[in-house]
Amino acid sequence: MKHLPKHLRPRWRYLAVRIDLPAGETVGRRAFQRELWYAGQNLLGDPGSADAVLSVVRFSVSPGGGSAVVKARRGEEGPARAALACVDTVEGTPVGLSVGGIGGTIRATAENHL
Hints:
Alpha-Beta Plaits, 114 residues, two-stranded antiparallel ribbon, 4-stranded antiparallel β-sheet, single chain, 37% helix, 33% strand, 6 strands, alpha+beta, globular
């Protein structure tokens, strides 16, 4: 199967997310991804969450906090931020999420906003 030409490929934006956790608590990447999908589906519905295509690209958490880079389709940054705002617990652990910035590449997003 041939690749799509560059002008037909989907464009992505990357959201730098800071994760605040209670002292001594951690969360896993899969659990965070699952909660992000559920929040997107509950807030945006099936068509909206399919348009946003929310996925965790990078994830680093230590006890007390961490960071993540979330991929979303270009033009869907607003719904992606809204879905992130709906995540309040991950596997019963309360979390606070804040978007530090949005970038066009993973590297630039991590360097400039995390």
